[in-house]
Amino acid sequence: MRTLLPSSPHNPMLRYSQSPATVTPSRRRFIHCGKRSDSSAVGSSRSDWQSSWAILSSKVVSQEQSESLLSSVNGHSNGSLNLVPFDNNSLAPNQQSKKTTPLSITDLSPAPMHGSNLRVAYQGVPGAYSEAAAGKAYPNCQAIPCDQFEVAFQAVELWIADRAVLPVENSLGGSIHRNYDLLLRHRLHIVGEVQLPVHHCFLALPGVRKEFLTRVISHPQGLAQCEHTLTKLGLNVAREAVDDTAGAAEFIAANNVRDTAAIASARAAEIYGLEILADGIQDDASNVTRFVMLAREPIIPRTDRPFKTSIVFAHEKGTCVLFKVLSAFAFRNISLTKIESRPNHNVPIRLVDEANVGTAKHFEYMFYVDFEASMAEARAQNALSEVQEFTSFLRVLGSYPMDMTSWSPSPPSSSSSTLSL
Q1: Fold identical between 116-195+289-297 and 301-401?
Q2: Residues annotated as part of the active site
Q3: Average model confidence (pLDDT) for the chain?
Q4: Rounded to whole angstroms, how far apart are CA atoms 100 and 95?
Q5: Residues in Cβ contact with 322 at an 8 Å cutoff, skipping those fewer than 6 apart
Q6: Which GO CC terms are listed, alphabetically (predicted)?
Q7: Is the pTM here over 0.85, yes or no?
Q8: Which CATH architecture has domain 116-195+289-297?
């Protein structure tokens, strides 16, 4: 899969650079993972992210250099804080008598609950569907694009962002396994969900004619979700997968590629100055992606509105334990909305009992389950108490309000996919 956004996995350092085209360029930043290169985002400078990290470095001391832990974030000591050098003589006379207080994590980044000051990280570039999901989850927020899913997690953990909005499943493509693995690796909490209808468009540079197109680029899911429609359009083009849909549109605009079209959103066409050749080209009108909202702290569960709870667990005694775990929810009339299995990276293979002399082996899995109940309800608490008896590991990822907003399916592609050439 072709990568349009330059990054280096060998350097875990985050950096800031200006986004190439945003609605409010003075406020939006792009978080990358990796060392900066000359081919990175347009209009950025090395001094931007150097100065940003210089401010943080002057306040935060790493765990190796710290001799004592002043606080822990989310119940896990990821580092420590130290006092900033302070000169009492530099204060005004009326302030010198006041007692100084230690620097806390809130001094680095106040975290508003909602509104225009909330900073929300998402994966992709401006115009991505994840940006639209962030805007739906937190209207008027400051959206912060990140070049990788894990960078969005790190942005919240490092207080660069207050929330993250990331996809976990699509009605056509299924689960986004990478984000399920990251939910287990990081200590963020699910505080909400949002469902976003996906409406794909066929984009190219203005004035490009049909016969000039030789390839179409998009995210692998975008290509798969429009496969039949692309065939019906009668285009003899190669299909190439890239990092994300909006990134495909950005690539065409930035490089003035006139033989290539992109599958992306209408907002991506507006941002990058592309022409919509065909609208609503997804094969299925009921194409919806579910996103989760992540925060450093969990929310308090309630019972006055529908809630959903997400858990992950592992067991060591074979498949019969999974039946007992699911029975704990069935006996209490708790509906499951999703169950997903992922390999247990810590113990990927388990030997069978000694009777078989260890010759047979089973794969070990972690199980992710979503169920419709709030942790404030007694039935949910009792169910998890029973589940804990049969499992070797159990973690609640979050208990949060369900997205109950109504949405209208996209128009059928057969009536809206006529090329305007």
Answers
A1: no
A2: 289, 291
A3: 75
A4: 10
A5: 315, 367
A6: chloroplast stroma
A7: no
A8: 3-Layer(aba) Sandwich (3.40)
